[in-house]
């Protein structure tokens, strides 16, 4: 395997890792108003419980996005410099959503004030939904088609990216994340929230997987081979598997099954798309491919060495974080947040 | 304004804003880690309370730094795609390695530190804050190495096929002398920010307590007193290092970017020996060096630039001619230069900005050092200052190193215009890599799009600044809260005890005092 292919695979892993990890914290945040029930105090306690499941990890999860974008820039500047300006406004929206979401997580409890708390909690939910839609839309566009011309410059103005690929990607990531968050909550909590989360996942998982499967299916139909077709089938079967595991209350297995849905779909999308990184809707001859978008072999070699040593260490301590916070959480009445 | 100007304003505003949070994160993170270490080693209650109080300010600020840092990584692509294509072989890999080696470390271990009280053994928990601090510092190194490569490109050759720089020596990029000087300067400047904060807030609390007749024997008094003393010493020591590293950086800049330095001195014509400008006045709105008149001190500039009192220092007028000869008097008549195509190139940065940016940076550092000296003097041998002017002045001066840091960056970045990648004079002209800011902007992006992002980010940043400032002020006024002063079981048993046990015996840390955020 040449270095460009290796880094295409690395970028795929980083984007998939981001969607897998940040996916459940997007989902949990989006489900706050859906899965909290009862009187206001009880609802607040439910929301606190849900937020505590992602509290220690959301920031580390978000670094996967930073690293994925960094790796795109580092390995394929031609991709970075085509994709980002072509979808200028959606990326700005993503940034705005991620900024308000991040500060809301930390600032929510800085005052003993129910209204202050409720406001920032709504910001967390809103920011997460918008961020999931924006990042999904951006990924949908780069894999399914963007109006770029011969020199990688967008044609058709500020809104020429608007179209069904963006809508499909956006809905796919949000829908996947919602169920992912629900399965995660079923796995990490005890009590009524766990029950509601499990019921939500059971009811919606088959429907929520459809846009993701459709997206992967379209890329496979356009340019896939045997391997990506098999991956697509694995993803579809994993949806069934997840559902049956949820049915018998095996949340851990359901979580793995739902993770497999994403892993196989993402591998199918990027694998079928390879070596194209931006599909042009103007003319297939204008597609941005890894061969022309990439940096020199020297730079790829340096990055391979550093990442080869660094990435296992990162994975090790991130896994350790999840181990430290592995306990199921239970709801408590109002407690002192100093 | 055209896309280029709007995009420059956007980059300037978002980056200066981001850099208000960054030095506080770096400097205060280090001091909080020191406080935490002292608590683990001595078991003294005041160090625990200091860790918690300053740790919380650190966290309120940290998250805004992280959030605004996200914008940085995207905007090279969003508005500056031609820059990204040009520097891709070097610049992107530094950012990616920063994310991989620094951001993961910082965010993961900070999460463990916040939520780890009572869940992981005491010494391991202490290690988490140090790991986060190391992450912040590595991150600073990488981003400054990336910036320094733009100031002084090394480790690359011009690729014959593309005309762009191709990396040939990664270690040279990481050990760029510009980066070593700028990094050490930025780190010690960050410590001045943190030191100034400890001094200003600590003095204010000490005075308030004294006027209210509160005890000077209790732990709270010790917290504020130690904060002032620690902050004062750190500030003063850091100021000395800021001056030394600044001098190092200045001497490099006289070799690498002589126009930046000569315009910082409003030195119009080459002088030997050269005089240092103390104060200048010029015609309003003029960027002609000859319109500027200075009050000067002889010999000093030669010394600052070359460590002797006689060497010549080149003037703006001569350098402008040299650069025009070497890099052209006008921009190439090429569409990639946009509105600037065929226009004359002004190699002199905006004189008012470089001249006053340089002086503001130095002046603010001096203000902060003077306040630190005052704080140490006025609290000597257990004294508590009650001077209204002294204490409120110190509180106000908390802002001085922030302004100094921002001014320093504005000077550095605007001083290298009209280049975004400045040619390295150590390399023969034919092998030099350089890029004009005018050709760096994204060609397909419209002015309306950049206006949209500039306005939306600007409004959001303004709102967040108000909220952050309000939160910090509110928290500082309240001082040490009840939660911070309640000793938790298993804590405070003195050094050596409970080293392997979690800091709290029960594993349910949900009501733990530092788990305020959730």
UniProtKB/TrEMBL annotation, chain A:
<dbReference type="GO" id="GO:0046872">
    <property type="term" value="F:metal ion binding"/>
</dbReference>
<keyword id="KW-0408">Iron</keyword>
<keyword id="KW-0812">Transmembrane</keyword>
<dbReference type="GO" id="GO:0016682">
    <property type="term" value="F:oxidoreductase activity, acting on diphenols and related substances as donors, oxygen as acceptor"/>
</dbReference>
<feature type="transmembrane region" description="Helical">
    <location>
        <begin position="6"/>
        <end position="35"/>
    </location>
</feature>
<feature type="transmembrane region" description="Helical">
    <location>
        <begin position="87"/>
        <end position="107"/>
    </location>
</feature>
<keyword id="KW-0813">Transport</keyword>
<feature type="transmembrane region" description="Helical">
    <location>
        <begin position="119"/>
        <end position="141"/>
    </location>
</feature>
<keyword id="KW-0479">Metal-binding</keyword>
<feature type="transmembrane region" description="Helical">
    <location>
        <begin position="224"/>
        <end position="243"/>
    </location>
</feature>
<dbReference type="InterPro" id="IPR003317">
    <property type="entry name" value="Cyt-d_oxidase_su2"/>
</dbReference>
<dbReference type="GO" id="GO:0070069">
    <property type="term" value="C:cytochrome complex"/>
</dbReference>
<protein>
    <submittedName>
        <fullName>Cytochrome bd-I ubiquinol oxidase subunit 2 apoprotein</fullName>
    </submittedName>
</protein>
<keyword id="KW-1003">Cell membrane</keyword>
<dbReference type="GO" id="GO:0005886">
    <property type="term" value="C:plasma membrane"/>
</dbReference>
<comment type="similarity">
    <text>Belongs to the cytochrome ubiquinol oxidase subunit 2 family.</text>
</comment>
<dbReference type="GO" id="GO:0009055">
    <property type="term" value="F:electron transfer activity"/>
</dbReference>
<feature type="transmembrane region" description="Helical">
    <location>
        <begin position="161"/>
        <end position="187"/>
    </location>
</feature>
<feature type="transmembrane region" description="Helical">
    <location>
        <begin position="255"/>
        <end position="278"/>
    </location>
</feature>
<feature type="transmembrane region" description="Helical">
    <location>
        <begin position="298"/>
        <end position="320"/>
    </location>
</feature>
<keyword id="KW-1133">Transmembrane helix</keyword>
<keyword id="KW-0472">Membrane</keyword>
From TrEMBL, chain B:
<dbReference type="GO" id="GO:0009055">
    <property type="term" value="F:electron transfer activity"/>
</dbReference>
<protein>
    <submittedName>
        <fullName>Cytochrome bd-I ubiquinol oxidase subunit 1 apoprotein</fullName>
    </submittedName>
</protein>
<keyword id="KW-0479">Metal-binding</keyword>
<feature type="transmembrane region" description="Helical">
    <location>
        <begin position="20"/>
        <end position="41"/>
    </location>
</feature>
<keyword id="KW-0408">Iron</keyword>
<keyword id="KW-0813">Transport</keyword>
<feature type="transmembrane region" description="Helical">
    <location>
        <begin position="356"/>
        <end position="377"/>
    </location>
</feature>
<dbReference type="GO" id="GO:0005886">
    <property type="term" value="C:plasma membrane"/>
</dbReference>
<feature type="transmembrane region" description="Helical">
    <location>
        <begin position="389"/>
        <end position="411"/>
    </location>
</feature>
<feature type="transmembrane region" description="Helical">
    <location>
        <begin position="450"/>
        <end position="473"/>
    </location>
</feature>
<keyword id="KW-1003">Cell membrane</keyword>
<feature type="transmembrane region" description="Helical">
    <location>
        <begin position="127"/>
        <end position="150"/>
    </location>
</feature>
<feature type="region of interest" description="Disordered">
    <location>
        <begin position="484"/>
        <end position="511"/>
    </location>
</feature>
<keyword id="KW-0249">Electron transport</keyword>
<dbReference type="GO" id="GO:0020037">
    <property type="term" value="F:heme binding"/>
</dbReference>
<keyword id="KW-0472">Membrane</keyword>
<keyword id="KW-0349">Heme</keyword>
<feature type="transmembrane region" description="Helical">
    <location>
        <begin position="53"/>
        <end position="71"/>
    </location>
</feature>
<dbReference type="GO" id="GO:0019646">
    <property type="term" value="P:aerobic electron transport chain"/>
</dbReference>
<feature type="transmembrane region" description="Helical">
    <location>
        <begin position="91"/>
        <end position="115"/>
    </location>
</feature>
<keyword id="KW-1133">Transmembrane helix</keyword>
<dbReference type="InterPro" id="IPR002585">
    <property type="entry name" value="Cyt-d_ubiquinol_oxidase_su_1"/>
</dbReference>
């Amino acid at each position: 395997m040449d270095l460009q292919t290796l880094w295409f695979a690395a970028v795929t892993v980083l984007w998939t890792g981001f969607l897998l990890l940040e996916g459940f914290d997007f989902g949990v945040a989006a489900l706050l108003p859906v899965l909290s029930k009862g009187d206001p105090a009880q609802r607040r306690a439910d929301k606190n419980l849900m937020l505590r499941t992602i509290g220690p990890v959301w920031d580390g999860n978000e670094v996967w996005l930073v690293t994925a974008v960094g790796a795109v820039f580092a390995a394929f500047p031609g991709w970075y410099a085509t994709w980002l300006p072509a979808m200028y406004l959606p990326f700005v929206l993503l940034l705005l959503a991620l900024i308000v979401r991040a500060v809301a997580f930390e600032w929510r409890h800085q005052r003993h004030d129910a209204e202050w708390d409720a406001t920032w909690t709504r910001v967390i939910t809103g920011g997460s939904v918008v961020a999931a839609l924006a990042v999904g839309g951006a990924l949908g566009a780069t894999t399914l088609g963007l109006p770029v011309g011969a020199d990688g410059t967008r044609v058709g103005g500020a809104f020429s990216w608007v179209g069904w690929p963006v809508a499909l990607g956006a809905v796919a990531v949000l829908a996947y994340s919602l169920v992912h968050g629900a399965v995660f909550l079923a796995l990490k909590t005890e009590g009524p929230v766990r029950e509601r989360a499990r019921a939500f996942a059971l009811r919606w998982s088959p429907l929520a997987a459809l846009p993701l499967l459709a997206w992967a299916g379209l890329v496979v139909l356009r340019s896939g081979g045997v391997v990506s077709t098999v991956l697509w089938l694995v993803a579809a079967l994993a949806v069934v598997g997840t559902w049956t595991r949820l049915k018998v209350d095996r949340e851990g297995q359901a979580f793995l099954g739902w993770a497999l849905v994403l892993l196989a779909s993402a591998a199918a999308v990027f694998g079928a798309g390879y070596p194209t990184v931006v599909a042009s809707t103007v003319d297939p001859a204008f597609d941005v491919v890894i061969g022309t978008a990439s940096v020199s072999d020297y730079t790829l070699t340096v990055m391979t060495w550093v990442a080869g040593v660094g990435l296992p260490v990162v994975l090790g301590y991130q896994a350790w974080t999840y181990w430290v916070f592995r306990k199921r959480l239970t709801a408590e009445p109002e407690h002192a947040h100093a | 304004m055209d896309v280029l100007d709007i995009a420059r304003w956007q980059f300037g505003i978002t980056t200066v804003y981001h850099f208000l949070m960054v030095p506080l994160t770096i400097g205060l993170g280090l001091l909080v880690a020191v406080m935490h270490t002292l608590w683990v080693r001595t078991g003294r209650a005041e160090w625990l309370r200091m860790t918690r109080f300053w740790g919380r300010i650190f966290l309120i600020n940290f998250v805004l730094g992280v959030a605004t840092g996200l914008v940085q990584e995207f905007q090279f692509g969003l508005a500056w795609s031609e820059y990204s294509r040009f520097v891709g072989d070097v610049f992107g890999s530094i950012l990616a390695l920063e994310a991989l080696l620094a951001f993961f470390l910082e965010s993961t271990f900070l999460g463990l530190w916040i939520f780890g009280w009572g869940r992981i053994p005491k010494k391991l928990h202490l290690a988490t804050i140090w790991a986060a601090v190391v992450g912040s510092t590595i991150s600073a190194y990488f981003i400054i190495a990336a910036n320094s490569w733009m100031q002084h490109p090394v480790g690359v050759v011009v690729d014959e096929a593309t005309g762009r720089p191709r990396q040939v020596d990664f270690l040279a990029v990481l050990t760029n002398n510009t980066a070593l000087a700028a990094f050490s300067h930025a780190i010690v400047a960050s410590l001045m920010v943190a030191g100034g904060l400890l001094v200003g807030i600590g003095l204010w609390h000490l005075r308030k307590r004294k006027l209210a007749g509160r005890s000077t024997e209790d732990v709270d008094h010790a917290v504020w007193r130690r904060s002032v003393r620690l902050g004062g010493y750190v500030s003063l020591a850091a100021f000395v290092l800021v001056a030394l590293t600044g001098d190092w950086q200045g001497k490099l800049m006289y070799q690498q970017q002589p126009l930046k330095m000569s315009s910082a001195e409003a030195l119009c014509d080459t002088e030997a020996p050269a005089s240092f400008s103390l104060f200048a006045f010029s015609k309003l709105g003029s960027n002609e060096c000859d319109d500027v008149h200075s009050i000067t001190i002889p010999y000093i500039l030669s010394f600052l630039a070359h460590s002797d009192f006689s060497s010549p220092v080149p003037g703006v007028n001569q350098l402008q001619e040299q650069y025009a000869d070497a890099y052209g008097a006008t921009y190439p008549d090429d569409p990639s230069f946009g509105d600037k195509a065929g226009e004359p190139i002004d190699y002199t940065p905006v004189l008012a900005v470089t001249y006053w940016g340089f002086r503001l940076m130095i002046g603010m550092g001096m203000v902060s050092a003077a306040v630190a000296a005052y704080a140490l003097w006025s609290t000597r041998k257990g004294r508590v200052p009650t001077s209204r002017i002294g204490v409120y002045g110190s509180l106000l001066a908390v802002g001085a190193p922030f302004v100094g840091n921002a001014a320093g960056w504005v000077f550095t970045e605007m001083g290298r215009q009209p280049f975004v990648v400045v040619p390295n004079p150590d390399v023969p002209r034919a092998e030099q890599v350089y890029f004009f800011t005018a050709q760096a902007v994204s060609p397909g992006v419209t002015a309306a799009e950049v206006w949209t992002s500039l306005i939306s980010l600007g409004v959001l940043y303004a709102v967040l600044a108000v909220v952050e400032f309000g939160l910090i002020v509110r928290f500082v006024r309240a001082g040490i809260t009840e939660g911070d002063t309640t000793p938790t079981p298993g804590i405070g048993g003195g050094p050596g005890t409970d080293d392997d046990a979690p800091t709290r015996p029960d594993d349910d840390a949900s009501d733990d005092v530092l788990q305020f955020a959730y």
